[in-house]
Structures are given as C-alpha cells and as structure tokens.
Amino acid sequence: MTKKKSLAAFTLVVFMLINLFYFFPPKQTFAQGKTKLIIHYAKDPNTNKDWNLWIWPAGKDGKKYEFTKKDDFGPYAVIEFDESYDKVGFIVRTDDWEKDVAEDRFVDKFKDGVAEIWLLPGDAEIYYSKPDKKNSTPVKLKEQTKVTVHYYRYDGKYDGWNLWIWPFGKQGKGYNFTGKDSFGVVSTFVIDDTLGVDKLGIITRRSEPNNDWAEKEFGDRFITKFKEDGSAEIWLMQGDERVHYSMDTLDLTQKLVSASIDGISTINIEVNFPFEINDTLKDKITIKDNEKTYTIKEIKVDESTKVDNKARRLSIVLNEKLALDKTITVEFKDYGIKTATFGQIFSSKEFDELYFYSGNDLGANYSKEKTTFKVWAPTASEAKLVIYSKWDDKQGKELAMKKEEKGVWSYTLDGDQNGTIYTYKVKIGDSWNEAVDPYAKSVTVNGDKGVVIDLSKTNPEKWNPKSKPQFKNPVDAVIYELHIRDLSVHPNSGIKNKGKFLGLTETGTKTKKGTPTGLDYIKSLGVTHIEILPMFDFASIDETSTKPQFNWGYDPKNYNAPEGSYSTDPYNPISRVSELKTMVQTLHDNGLRVIMDVVYNHMYSAEAANFNKLVPGYFFRTDASGKLTNGSGCGNDVASERSMARKFIVESVVYWAKEYNVDGFRFDLMGLLDIETMNTIRAELDKIDPSILIIGEGWNLSTALDDSLKANQKNAAKMPRIAHFNDTIRDGIKGSVFNHNEPGFVNGSRSSQFKVMSGIVGGIDYSSGISTWGNIEPVQSVVYCEAHDNNTLYDKLKFTNPNASEEEIKAMHKLAGAIVLTSQGIPFLHAGQEFMRTKQGNDNSYNASDEINRLDWDRKDQNIDVVEYYKGLIELRKNHPAFRMPTAEMIKKHLEFLDTPTNVIAYTLKDNANGDKWKNIVVAFNGTEKEQKITLPSRGKYCVVVNGQKAGVKTLETVSGGTLTLPPKTAYVLYEKTTNYALISAVVILVGMLGFVGYHMYSKLNKK
C-alpha cells in the first residue's frame, strides 16, 4: 500500500470513529477530581411534606438540595461536586428540620466518582441497588413485640454496657444484656405498647453507680425493619454506627481499628479481633512516614486486653522521634494499614514544649500600613495565605507563608487591607486543607471566608466602651434570657427590623392595643441584664436565603464573628459588626447590661471545623480508641484542657468583652470545659471589669476528662465567682424537665420542699438537710424555673395538671415566679415567662418554626396581670437588699425557716438584714390546694406587699395576731411594722415641755 493510500485509510478510520462517538457516545464517566451523587427517594404518598436534602461532603459544611427529577421510584436529586470525595453525608428533611430518619447517614461506595442510592421512607438502610417499594411500609409492632439485640465489642469490655430503648415519640426504658452467643452479648426483651409503633429508638450506653449515662456510643439510632410476626432482630458492633438486620452485612474481617500517636516516640494500636502474643509481633509491624521507616525499640502488650495468650491492644515504642508534620502509617500483617492519628501526644508536656505559642497576635493583625496574618498549624508541612476578590470566588491567589517558631506560619501584606477576603491552606500529610482563620473578626456570607476589617470603622456614632449601667454585686442582677429573632418576628411586635440586631434598638414600638413591646417593654420590667442566645456566627442558618429560618444557634462556626442572619446585610462584613455594637450601646443607654451566650464546649461539626482542618485532632477530645467523645450530644467535645485550645477560648472571651463591651458570659454546657480554663477566664475578665458576670451550665457530663477537672456543679467550690444554673430548685419548683408529668412544689408534689429550700438559700451549705453543692457563695447559684431549653413553665404546668383551669395554672405560675425572684442568688427569667409563654408543648424548639418560638405580644396583653405581678416582684427585690445577700455567712445569720405544714415553706429575713426600716420580712409559699396557717415570729402588725393577686413595695393589706392564713397556691411577702420608741419618747418629752411652759405662763397670767 502506498503512503497516499495509507493516509487516506487512516483519515477514513478517524472520520468513522468521530461519527461513531457522535451518534453512539460512550457511557459517561465523571472527570477525575469530581463527585456525582444520585439520590432516589420513595416518598410516602400519604404525606404532603416538602422533603428535601441536606448534603455535606465529610469534613465540609452542609447545603440544601431539592429533589428536582422524578422516575417510577419517586423523586430524585443529582448532586455534583467539583472536588473528589469518598464519603458524603446526607439527611432527608423538611425546611423545619423534621427528619425522615433521625440519624446522619453517609454514602461511602463510589465508583469512578459516582454513587447512586435508593431510600425508603422511615428506613435508615441505604440501598445501592433499587429495592422493592412494596417493602417500604414497616410492619406494625404488636401489643407485645419481641426484640433481640446482639452486640459485639472488640475491646471485650461489656461491664456496665446496656441498652436504652424507646418506641418513637414515647418514653424510654433501660434493658440489660442477659446472655452471650458466638457474636458477643445478647439482650432479648418485649416491648409493651397497646397502639403499636413502627419505629424503635436505641442507644448503647455504659452505666456506672449513680450515673446511668456515664458513656454512650453514637447518638440515637432506630430499628425500622420488623419481621412478619412483628418481632425484630439486630446486630450492633462497637465502632460501627449502622444497625444491621443480618450478619451478612457485618464486616468481620481482621483490621486495625485505631493507631494513635500518644507520645513523641510512641504509637498505640488496637485491632477488632485479637492477635497471638509471640516473638514475631515486632516483625509484623511497620511504621513509616512520607520519607522514612522508623525502627521499633520495643512492643508492650496491653495486659487489660489479654485473654488466652491473645490481646487487642499494644504500644509501640520507637527509637526515633516521630515527624509530626508528616503522614505516619502503621502496617500490621494480617490487619492491614492505618494512618496514625494524634492522640495523647496533644495533651503531653513534650508537645507543649515544642509547640505552645504564647504570643497574642494570631489572626489578621491590621493596621493602615500593613496586615500580618498568623496561623498556628504545627502539624502542617506547608501553609498558604489565600486572597479572594469576591465572597463566592472558587479560587484565590495563593501566597506561601513563612514557618516561624512554635508551629506558627505568617505572611505580611503591605498597604491598607481593610475588606480583604482571605483563608488559609495547610498541607497535612499529602492533602491540602482550606480553612477560615479561627481568629477572623468578620466573615463573608455564611462564614465561608474570613475578612480583614478596620474595627475602628465599625463603631456606632455614640460608641462609649466606658459608659455602661452601674452594677456592683452579682446578686443584684435580674437576668432576662432572649433570642434575637424571638423578640421581633411576631406580626404585632411593632418592630421594623424583624429578626435583626437592630430590632432590639427600636423604641416606641407597641402592640395593636397600644402597650409597649421590644426594648421599651423589657426596660419597663426592671430587669438588669439581657442574656442573648448565641450571636456569634453559627452554621445552621443559610444567610443567603430570604425564607423564614430559625435556630437557637448552638452550633458554632466562627467564634469571633457576629452571626450574619441577624444583620440587615449579611453580605457586608462590616454590617454584622457595627449593628451588633449598636445594639449593645443602645441597651447600655437604656440601663440594661448584656450577657453573651457562648458555646465553647463543642462545634457544629468536628470534621468541618476550621480548627480541625488546620490541626487535625488537636482541638477535640477522643476516647481511648481514638473516637470523638460526645458529652455535648452534638458529636464532639472541645478539648479545653489543651493549652492552645484554652488559649483560644480565653482570648475569644476577652475579645468580646473588650471590642463589644459585653457585660457577661453564659457558658453552654460549661461542665464539659475544665476548671483551669474557667478560672483563667475569670481572672482575665477581672482585669477588664470585675463586674462582668460568668454563669454556666455546670452539668456533670461524660467526656474524656477526669471528674476532678470538670467545670461542673460538683466542683463549684473550686471556681469562685462563677455561677451555675441551679437545676435543684428548678426541678423542685415544677418537677423534672425530663418527665413531662412529674410535678414539683407548685403543681402537686409533696416531696419537693427541701429542694426548693436549698435553692432559696442560694445553694449554700446552709445545714445538714439544706445544701446543694457544698461550700459555695450565693453568687454561684443561678435561680430559675424556665429557660429556652425544655418546656416553658406554662407548658409544664399544663402537662402536670391537665384538668386545671386557666386561673389555677396562673396561680401556680405566679407562685413559681415569686419563689425565683425572692430567693438568694442570681434570679433568671426566660423571655415571655412573665406572660405565661407557651411553645405548644415543644420542649426542644431549637429549629422549630417562628410560630412556636416567637414572643407572642398579643399573649402579653392577655396576661398583663401576670406581667405586673412579675414587675412588682422585681421592684421588691431591687428595693430590699434582704433578698440579695452576697455571702453565705449573711444568709446563715439572717435567714431562718419557720415551722410549717408539708408543702408549705416560710422563712424570715430577720434582724434588720435589709438595712432599712423594715424589721422582720416574712416570705411564705403555699404549694398545697388548701388554705394553710403559719405562725408569724411575733404578734405585731405586718404589712403585706405580695399576695396571690399583686406584688410590689406598696402595702396591700395588714395582718396581726401572730398568724397568717395562706390561700392555696400563693406566695406572701410581708414585713413587721416597727414601733419607733425614739419618736414616741421625743413626742412625750416635747409634750411635757410644752405642758411645763404652758403651766408657768398660765400661772404668771393668773398672778397678774
């Protein structure tokens, strides 16, 4: 064949191939570095709910996606990402965050970057092939349903482990494992439910004496598949979140479960099935990083896991120090390869010596001449500063940062960088992570990038950090807990800037009836402090959306930047800062101090957290197996005890106190933080202003921190001048918040008297029978009976007393408020409590609708008598120091309980404890449904200032004769009128003198 013929033949073949590909294109494959996810959902035809998807690549933030397509199976969505992911999380939900399946689910089976799954309603199973829709309706449980749970722990430790089971929407119950099989332990039990349910909640937990919830593995999981006879059988494995309905889906292969770097030359490993202990172990293990293989000095078997010459854990000691900025892998023959994660090394002295940075210049250090960026990333091998032109740019200009001492990287940009948008990128092992600066003072919309700002340009016109309402002692406070959006979104609030910081600055706002709302109303109550639910940047609200969205905000994303959804322009990084400052200044100008609700105990997502991207594993606690602890119930606990985590928390609090002139901090789940961190915060705030309040939830929660170090109620005496929410008096007043139907002192219990009394004395160690947390001062007790968490007081009373009339509920409500506002310590009110706020029985309204959460200003008008009652109690408290004694010594000296019938409490504030003209103040509470008589300290005349109808400082009536009759469900406050003997003596002397003078004048006149 000639060259010309060969060329012609080649051209013909190419032409045919082009046409072939045009008319018969090859099956589409996804370009490398991209991810495609197809989700089919067999929507329940019996519901009209608008289901959509919340999707997040593992380690990234989430985003809403709609089902935009439909086939014979039902609606489906096609989601594409520009990056390559091997694990993507998803939730099927409504915009109100009602979930089809409660737990987070993950797609982790991709082929060529593509995964296709099918979902059935109410079924947690992820199907990678199309299932039969006929099986989508779960079998109904019968009145008695047998359930069998098999549970395997590769650590072999089953002591204390048990199950918490609940029919969906109903109360739960604990079940023990009662037998063993070849798999592990077994629990077989019967669920009694006359109605039958189609879903069972299940939690695996470990109990200890006096603590049923010492530890739990994962969160809520659900049994949704039942056999034809209504029974269910499942298999659970330690470390595996999936509920298995067959052993066929279990992964029973030998593998490394964890490899943890716990010392500069030590790695601890754990396997799921035990290995033989012999002399060849050393030869079976290889440890290396990107550049070299390490030599093993010795291997130590963990004796606690040893059974019959087999074990599950061992410690590997190396001859060299590990390179912490490299990817370190462990290979164990027959158990595979695992990348080592950082464990106890992060808490070690040696790590601190190498990497603790004491400087106070992390973040973007702005001046008009230049801005220096500094980020702490000791385990990174490279770091870059990334500069963006716009908030939604996908790529930015990357600038290599310089490595400095103690794991800090820096870069300086010359010129005025006000408004510069930036992030950091760090190379961890072989991967690059991009993160927002944890110290960023403002952010772009949705907090996905940091912004350099000139803070001097964010101050309002009348900004005066030195001007704030006078305040001296913590017990002088009356705290009013408020959510920014709740305040203003009601149609009749009269507030223009609904759901915004500026809504709390508006004055002259009124209801349709012409009564005050908003700031004017709160000011009129007489409270001293407004505590505002989280107002830092949180993750659960899409700031780009104009649809109504609600969340309490306990899911931090950027700690030092204000939340954008509360600003009038979330796209403007200046607005969120200046408007929050305007709100603070306005509240100060109106005599109100500001407490900021802060959430340093956990973050929205550990994987997606900027901290974790910069220094993976450092900022979050892990258990012995290397898994994140979950005392917060939000999937992670911040390791506040680690020096750089503590440093950030302290500096963040100080920043808010200085830059925003905040007057107090309420620490969410403070019991998960450590004592040293909290005491350091107290000391640093004292340098700024000792009157700044610190209050917190000192609950005793399970986390990887020694009990003696936790900042909880049991350790309150170790944290002077840090106050804890007093749940003893809370539950004493109205009953347990975890049991809707359990009553307290005001609503039917006859055994809550001493709980209430222990709170009345400010939680101090008053006597052998009246004590809360031991040797503390009253400034450490926050007295309350209602907060944003759990049912409102009104709703709780409706649950416990379903047949009570509205007037009877009102009487109990007033009684509860009177107990709170006359008790020693720091009183705390939930916004709207004073007009009997209801959330329609929703006890966890963190993401419910505005209709559930908003302050109902019409209800305020309807219950104005209760509002006036609370106002009177606040006025009484503020006018008489006897209700605000600052020390335990004073309380023991001046507060004395009187003998009373059961469920009646009465006490005197005696010996002129109040320091004014009132001699003895008597406070009495009748929690019974009948009239009760009490004996007063004397038979003198008493002035009543609080009764069942009204409260204040004006005399409502007088009583005498030494006894007081208390109507049912009422509070009384009265004081003994003193006899002024000095005045009487003076009058007698004056009359005598006048008589003497008159007699002599009369005598002289007669002589004349």
Protein architecture, described:
This protein has 1008 residues and is of the alpha+beta class. The protein has six domains: 101 residues, Immunoglobulin-like (Sandwich), CATH 2.60.40.1110; 112 residues, Sandwich (Immunoglobulin-like); 87 residues, Sandwich (Immunoglobulin-like), CATH 2.60.40.1130; 79 residues, Immunoglobulins (Immunoglobulin-like), CATH 2.60.40; 305 residues, TIM Barrel (Alpha-Beta Barrel); 91 residues, Golgi alpha-mannosidase II (Immunoglobulin-like), CATH 2.60.40.1180. It has 18 helices and 53 strands. It has an eight-stranded parallel barrel with strand order 36-37-40-41-42-43-44-45. It starts with a helix and ends with a helix.
Second-tier CATH architecture of the largest domain: Alpha-Beta Barrel
Beta-strand content estimate: 25-35%
Write the CATH homologous superfamily of the largest domain.
Glycosidases
Question: What's the Cα radius of gyration?
Answer: 34 Å
Report helical residue fraction: 10-25%
Q: Give the averaged pLDDT, no decimals.
A: 90
Strand segment tally: 53
Q: Are there runs of 5+ residues with pLDDT below 50, and where? A: 1-5, 9-32, 136-141, 980-985
**What structural category do the secondary elements indicate?**
alpha+beta
Q: Report the CATH C-level class of the largest domain.
A: Alpha Beta
Terminal CA distance: 171 Å
Number of domains: 6
The biggest beta sheet reads: 8 strands, parallel, barrel
Strand order of the largest sheet: 36-37-40-41-42-43-44-45
Examine the coordinates and then state which fold CATH places here, giving the name of the CATH topology of the largest domain: TIM Barrel
Spatial shape: globular
> How many helix segments?
18
Keywords: Calcium, Glycosidase, Hydrolase, Membrane, Signal, Transmembrane, Transmembrane helix
GO molecular function: carbohydrate binding; pullulanase activity
GO biological process, one term: carbohydrate metabolic process
Transmembrane segments: 7-24, 981-1002
